[in-house]
Design a protein that fits this description.
The chain is an alpha/beta fold. Helices cover about 35% and strands about 25% of the residues. Helix 2 links the parallel strand 1 and strand 2.
Length: about 220
């Protein structure tokens, strides 16, 4: 089963704002729709940035004690450039991007960078609600047996809280990174611990006969 894509889990009805939207209107938007952030787009729906509740609170704190400060708009408080994803990207890859960049939402854009949806942390986490037994069965059947054609029992698989541990021996050295990468891409997998060894090193360079060590 291939990983689900961002396009399958994203929210298509996106609340958005423009560069010139006033501070108070953004606050009202977040409160009315019960969301924690909103993308900022231009007239062509291209994403310019994202305004989060944290951005608004920080701005409000900076304005305290400065009653004559000019009116603040989305352009003043947004985080830019926005961190975006495409609908064909896998959910695990998007979740790792979200975690690595420390954001709560990812605007989803088409090939022309126009906003077509939004993927929140909640949207992506729904995919990770798989049992460890379900993940283990998929690793054994689809990765080890079907893809790598390893004999039953050659590799031991255990899964705990979404972390896959691989132990045992593959036939070829090149099969180890294949197994790790394939397991990483499965839905619900949050980490892979590699304890594999190999029988044949098919990655070692061939030595010409004239340079081979004497027997």
């Amino acid at each position: 089963m291939p990983p689900r894509t961002v396009g399958e889990v994203m929210t298509m009805d996106v609340v958005r704002t423009r560069r010139t939207t006033p501070f108070k209107e953004i606050v009202r938007l977040l409160d009315r729709h019960r969301i924690s952030g909103v993308p900022v787009t231009d007239e062509d729906d291209k994403v310019l940035g994202v305004v989060s509740g944290t951005d608004l609170v920080r701005t409000q704190a900076n304005q305290a004690g400065h009653p004559r400060v000019r009116a603040v708009t989305a352009a003043d408080v947004m985080s830019s450039p926005a961190i975006t994803v495409h609908p064909e990207q896998s959910v695990p890859d998007a979740a790792r991007l979200m975690e690595r960049r420390g954001v709560e939402r990812l605007p989803v854009v088409d090939e022309e960078d126009r906003l077509i949806g939004i993927a929140t942390r909640r949207d992506l986490l729904r995919v990770f609600l798989r049992t460890d037994d379900d993940i283990r069965l998929q690793v054994v059947e689809e990765v080890l047996t079907d893809a790598l054609e390893l004999p039953a029992g050659a590799v031991r698989v255990s899964v705990r809280d979404g972390v896959v541990t691989l132990d045992g021996r593959t036939e070829l050295r090149s099969q180890i990174p294949e197994a790790v990468h394939a397991a990483w891409r499965l839905e619900g997998v949050v980490g892979v611990m590699n304890g594999l060894t190999f029988r044949v090193d098919d990655c070692a360079p061939l030595v010409p006969a004239e340079h081979a060590p004497p027997r």
